[in-house]
Structures are given as C-alpha cells and as structure tokens.
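User: Mind token order:
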Amino acid sequence: REDAELLGFDLEDGMDVVVSGDVDVFPRKGTVQLLVRAATPAGVGAFWAAYQRTRKKLAVEGLFDSARKRPLPSFPRRIGVVTSEIGAVVHDIVTILRRRYPIAHIVVAPALVQGPGAPASLRRALAVVADRVDVVILARGGGSLEDLWCFNDEGLARAVASCRVPIVSAIGHETDVTIVDFVADLRAATPSAAAELVSPNSAALAAQLNETGRLLVQSIREIVSAARERVRGLGERMSPRGLRRSVETNREQLERLYEALSALGSREIFRHRENLAAIGRRLDLLSPLATLQRGYAIAEREDGHIVARATEVEEGDALAVRFQDGRIHVHVKGGGQAA
C-alpha cells in the first residue's frame, strides 16, 4: 500500500504500465507472485494522462499557488545541490557557484535522477540536505519523457512543497516542464541558470562595494571641507579685524534704523495731532458750551441736573443759570407753564 501511494499516478483497470519489483516463486503451489515496487505508465498517451491527473490534483490543493512561493536568500551561506553525482550537471553547477560566490559552502546530495527508484532517492536526498543549507538546487540534464518522469512523481512533488528552505528546479531543457517545476519556489531554464539564480556575483558585489566606498569617501571629504570653511569663516569673524568690521556694520544698520524710526515717529505724531484736532473741533460743535457762546443760558438744579422744560420747575425751586462767563442762582416765583 505504501508503494502504491508513492507511484505518482493512479492505477486504473486496463492501463499499460512498466513495473519493477521482486518475484517470489512457490514451487509446491506452482504459483508465482510479483511484488511491484515501482511502476510507470507505458506509452506517451498514458504518460500524459497520468501527468494531467497529478497536476490537477496538486493544483486543487494549492501547491502551485504563487502565494506560497518563497523568495531566494540574497546571500546564502550554504547551498544544497540534489542531482546525480556523475555527469556534467553537478560539475557545471559547482563550477559556476565557486566562480560567482566562492564564500558559500556547497553541499551535494547525490541521488538517482531517472528510473523507478529515482523518486524515493530524490526524496531521501532532499531530506538529508534540507536542514543543512539555506537554498536547494534540484537539477537534472535533458532526457526523454521516460527519463524525466520521476520528476512528475506526486510524492516527490509533495516533498519539494514541504521542504524547509526554498527550492530552485532545473530539470531538462527549457521546454521540459515537470510537476516539480510547478511546485518549486522558482524554476530555472537550465542547471547553469539555477546556479546563477541562487548565487550573487562576487565580482559585481566587489565592484559595487568599491563604488560605494568611493562615494562614501567623497561625501566625507565634502563634509570635512564644508566644516573647515565654516571654521575658517568663524575665525575671520572672531578676529580683531572681523569684530571691527561686524561692529561697523551693526552701527550702520542701527543708524539707518534710527533715522527711519525718527522720520516715521515725526510723521505719526503729526498725523495723530491732526486727528485729535479734528475730533476736538467736532466735539466743540456738539458741546453745550458752544451754545452758551451764542448767547443762550442753561438752567440747572442744585444737583447739576439740567432743566430742559418749564413744566419741570415749581414755585420756590432754587436754580442755577449758567451763562457764557459764569452762573447766577435764582428762585422760581411762578409755577412753570408751557409756552
């Protein structure tokens, strides 16, 4: 049952498959038992049907979603490589990594990359390397559909999806797309491209650091130069000649301000004096004293209340009559009558 779950496709009645496993012979019973350990579909049509079933199944589970894809580390300290230990692929990957990013530690986990036993071998290699590195390259060179079929294995795809660190797949040629490519965090067109994707270019980094250092030194020099100019300027202003120049400049400014304020003060005083005179003239026109100057008199009671009508007084009331040049006191002999 465990081997059946790891086939990578669903067995159906009438399906043609190529199997590998163990044969047990029972002479006494005259029977033969075939214990199947691995199986692959026979024929391109069967391969394609199994491929589509697995792809749709994992897509429904969300294993292909871009949201679960993890970014690659910018500066990995350890880089894992899962591939065959023989052939050009591992050589190309290691050569590029050592040339571009020699400070990284490379951990190679060899595995079978084709045949019925390849999916299990690849899963074991992933499990070994995952806890020791920051990123993994899962790679294989080009081959036929049958050669690459192990990378369509459902169990391997789930192992890639559950890996603790990001995985870059580089399987076959650019036109070869496997289930593992869909599940991986990033797909590279070739194994060499995968090596370049996971490793920063040390030469470019060195050039960038040199340029950054040059700009930093230039900025520091400019800051120091500006500070030196400020100090020199302060020194000139604090010297006896600079102080005399500053005092003369301030004296001239004060004299100009004094002259401006003096001229402004005279104009303001004159303007306010004219305003007050105009207000005084208007008040004189409204003042009761102006009425007295025209020959009229004002009758007041002893408490200063002005008597405005004859009906307000009675016989015997004491009044004061104010004229232009003084006042007289009188007593009313007759009751007030209206005119």
